[in-house]
């Protein structure tokens, strides 16, 4: 009877291969878990953090403006006690006098005086609230389009060289379409005639969606000019001066290759 010879070297080689395969499998599983956590952080956690922060900022702005309004009301009462009524005795305030009635709204050109009275915001300062009823969206507007200090906080950013709300020219805004609150994720759903409100400490400006450019290059600066008109797709945009609103975001979703643009025109303004 022959006794089988055990090849120790072959056994050790098989054990080494098994350990390598096991270690490789562990590494792949670990990498998969890390990637899943990163995706969850980007797609869920950053959205949650940014939305909560943006909501708190909206509430803070509303409280601040309410306090300012109460303070101005107190001053108005004191001034009224001293004979601050209208000269004709009608008691009409500045808003109704400007509009010729008691509606409190003004035409686009008349809004410039109210807009010009608003101090220029500091860099990265949140100073307005953007409301889009169709999208159930209400977010802060901050000066500048810095990712770290504005966009990644779930805010909408104002292009610094463009007009302010209610002013002649183009009030141009940028916002994330995905992650970090993604306020502009669904602006592709906006249709002509939809209302967009921009609220500041002094007034509420209502813009009306007019046109959409579904895709243009990321470097198409023409879409945010004073008279917005695409330099890439020249058939899109305007030729005449006006009171414009521009919303820009990345497209397609989860990329930054192109830009999606929505344009609106100022329809009305009412003082706060």
Strand content: 15-25%
Please tell me what the overall shape is: elongated
CATH superfamily name? Sortase
Pick out the low-confidence regions.
Answer: 77-107
Tell me about this structure.
By secondary structure, the chain is an alpha+beta fold. It has a single domain, classed as Sortase, Chain: A (Beta Barrel), CATH 2.40.260. It has helices at 8-81, 94-99, 111-116, and strands at residues 126-132, 137-143, 156-158, 169-174, 195-199, 203-217, 243-251, 258-271. An eight-stranded mixed β-barrel has the order 1-2-3-4-7-8-6-5. β7 (243-251) and β8 form a beta hairpin. It is elongated and about 95 Å long. Mean pLDDT is 82; it is low at 77-107.
Q: Nutshell version of this structure?
A:
By secondary structure, the chain is an alpha+beta fold. The protein is built from 3 helices and 8 strands. Strand 5 and strand 6 form a beta hairpin.
Annotation keywords:
single chain, 272 residues, alpha+beta, Sortase, Chain: A, eight-stranded mixed barrel, 8 strands, 24% strand, elongated
Per-chain topology:
Elements: H1 8-81, H2 94-99, H3 111-116, E1 126-132, E2 137-143, E3 156-158, E4 169-174, E5 195-199, E6 203-217, E7 243-251, E8 258-271
Parallel strand pairs: 2-3, 4-7
Antiparallel strand pairs: 1-2, 1-5, 3-4, 5-6, 6-8, 7-8
């Amino acid at each position: 009877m022959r006794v089988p010879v055990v090849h120790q070297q072959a056994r050790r080689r098989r054990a080494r291969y098994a350990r390598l395969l096991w270690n490789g499998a562990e590494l792949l599983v670990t990498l998969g878990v890390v990637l899943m956590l990163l995706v969850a952080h980007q797609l869920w956690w950053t959205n949650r953090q940014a939305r909560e922060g943006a909501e708190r900022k909206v509430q803070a702005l509303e409280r601040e403006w309410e306090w300012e309004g109460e303070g101005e009301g107190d001053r108005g009462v004191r001034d009224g006690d001293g004979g601050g009524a209208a000269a004709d005795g009608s008691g009409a305030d500045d808003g109704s006098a400007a509009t010729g009635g008691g509606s409190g709204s003004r035409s686009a050109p008349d809004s410039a005086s109210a807009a010009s009275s608003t101090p220029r915001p500091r860099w990265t300062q949140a100073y307005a609230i953007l409301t889009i009823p169709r999208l159930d969206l209400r977010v802060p507007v901050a000066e500048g389009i810095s990712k770290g200090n504005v966009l990644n906080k779930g805010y909408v950013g104002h292009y610094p060289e463009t007009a302010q709300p209610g002013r002649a020219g183009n009030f141009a805004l940028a916002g994330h379409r995905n992650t970090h609150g993604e306020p502009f994720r669904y602006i592709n759903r906006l249709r002509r005639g939809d209302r967009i409100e921009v609220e500041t400490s002094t007034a509420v400006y209502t813009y009306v969606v007019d046109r959409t450019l579904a895709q243009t290059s990321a470097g198409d600066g023409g879409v945010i000019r004073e008279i917005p008109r695409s330099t890439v797709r020249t058939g899109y945009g305007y030729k005449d001066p006006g009171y414009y609103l521009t919303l820009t975001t990345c497209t397609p979703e989860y990329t930054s290759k192109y830009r999606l643009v929505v344009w609106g025109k100022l329809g009305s303004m009412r003082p706060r």
